[in-house]
Design a protein that fits this description.
The structure holds 2 protein chains of 2 kinds. In chain A, the strands form 3 sheets. In chain A, strands 1, 3, 4, 5, 6, 7, 8, 9, 10, 13, 15 and 16 form a 12-stranded mixed sheet that branches. Chain A has a two-stranded antiparallel sheet with strand order 2-14. Chain A has a two-stranded antiparallel sheet with strand order 11-12. In chain A, helix 2 runs antiparallel to helix 12 and helix 9 runs parallel beside helix 12. In chain A, a hairpin with a 2-residue loop joins strand 11 and strand 12. Chain A has 13 helices and 16 strands. Chain A folds into 2 domains: 191 residues, no CATH class; 182 residues, no CATH class. The longest helix of chain B is centred in the C-terminal third of the chain and has 18 residues. Chain B is α/β, with parallel strands linked by helices. Chain B is globular. Chain B has one domain: Rossmann fold. Chain B is built from 7 helices and 10 strands. Helices cover 34% and strands 29% of the residues of chain B. The chains are: A alpha+beta, B alpha/beta. Chains A and B meet through helix 1, helix 10, helix 11 and helix 13 of A and helix 2 and helix 3 of B.
Amino acid sequence: MTLGQAFLEALESLSGNKLRSGLTVLGIVIGVAAVIAMLAVGKGAQASITGSISGIGTNLLFVFRGDPGDNVRNPKPLTLGDAAALRDQFAAPSVEAVAPALQGNGIVSFGGKQTSPQIFGVTPEYFQVRNYSITEGELITEEHMLGRASVVLLGPDVAKNLFGHSDGVTGETVRIEGQPFRVIGVLESKGGGAFGSQDDVVLVPFTTAQTRLIRRSTSDRVDIIFVQAVSGEMVKQASEEIAAILRTRHRTPVGADDFTVFTQQDLLTTFQTITGVLTIFLGGIAGISLLVGGIGIMNIMLVSVTERTREIGLRKALGARKRDIVVQFLTESSLLSLIGGIIGIIFGWLISFAVGQIAAANNTAFTPIVGLDAVALATIFSAAVGLFFGIYPANRAANLEPVEALRYE
Amino acid sequence: MDHVIETHDVSKVYTMGEVEVHALRGVSFTIERGEVVAIMGPSGSGKSTLMNTLGCLDRPTSGEYILDGESVASLTDDQLADVRNRKVGFVFQSFNLLSRQTAITNVELPLRYAGMTSGRRDRAIEALKAVGLEDRMTHHPYELSGGQQQRVAIARAIVNNPAIIMADEPTGNLDSKVGKEIMQLLLNLNKESGTTLIIVTHDPTVAEQTQRVIRLRDGVLDGVS
């Protein structure tokens, strides 16, 4: 018997019991759709994070206190002196600009409304390094720094939360932790980023933050130093120069830095690892439902073999060999899973599309990506499930004794 | 003479739990090519076992069985399947047609297992014509009367030009009028093509129409008449 005939016959036999076949297929449909959708969501998350990290700027470096593993005890804090040392043109030729910053949280209020954005105490270099621009007003200047001026730049989200709109708010006075600050401008929107919204921030002069908002134990202490490398290609070199300077200043032994230089590339790698694990995790859970669908196929095939014992006996009496019977039942089970696989791929794609639409409706830059690899994986896996879970019932059918099978009532 | 069937001291022992059941205890006989033979005997006489053995559905425990010049007592399952396909046509009491398939597809089935790829349809049409069902070829079994279903089954049995036709109570599920027609059809086919016909039956009127009756009792031959 050729495969084409086996295929037609299997189709005929499955359509003879439409409800049962349909329910069995449904198990596979759900499994495959879940796998496709989950992999698409994972991939979409990866793409979205990669995109937003790239948006931060490819030549940006971050310097934090402490090592990544927290192995160094009592790491020395970063200071303004450290930041100044990084500006050294000879020791750090790859560094373009350095912006030390203080970071904290606080309540910002205007009238009866309040919000709690991230507060950054920044120097004028910050705008160059972070590539921030404003939609109205002016930037923080050296004069503001010197005068410890009570002025603030609002992120667009903060302006919206307080005023209901993000234009025409320059000159208003808001309260940060109860203290009055004059709004000197509004930042341009940068969209949601990997570290929460970059729009939900307020920027105050470094000196003002130091003395009035974000107090630290020593006066020259900084929380984070943003460094701009000369170019994207020089990031690695800049990172090494920064490390060399800070090692000398902090007198740390070799191999035990008490600071961390983080590049955008490191960040990308870290997040890609996280989303990769997430994707495998989600796909794995979805895979379990596919497995359950496969068990459903096996169950229904076993019932089918029992029900059709006489038919099997007859086929054997007419000259069917074991192989013929195995092929017949395997074709049926793989056909079930194949149909389920195809419908599941369509469903999974629809789910991914719907998730993308929902994300778009909520202004989230997130598009699930249905990859060809996911489709291929789901197809192969579902066909394999059909074959694997069909083998036992098919063998059971093929090994029936013709005499017994014919006598079966 | 040309023996189409030769059995030498065929025995069959079933083990049911710890009890050994001797269904056949050394049966030897021959059937000539083109003969019409009835196998009779009370239930429990080993009649069904003999039929299964002669039809190559089962192997004897001991003894020798030569079907159409081929010794089949020690073949593997698949080889037996092949022998059934080429040399034996079965007609069952309850027809045993595939209910989802049309008459012609049912008749084609043995040809498919024979590995025939072209000309199947023509052979099946020929067989259905031989049983007088050329106008019912695309009907499903449930659209056919009992007699018509048995005719389809007979067409299926002869489509491969087998050496023997094994009919197990072929008229058992039919009323006597239709039963007679079916018997007549089988006898006519035997006359026309010379295919050996072996009928297992309880019915003396059926047995009367055969040339010879093999009687069994308690697993041994109880006379051939």
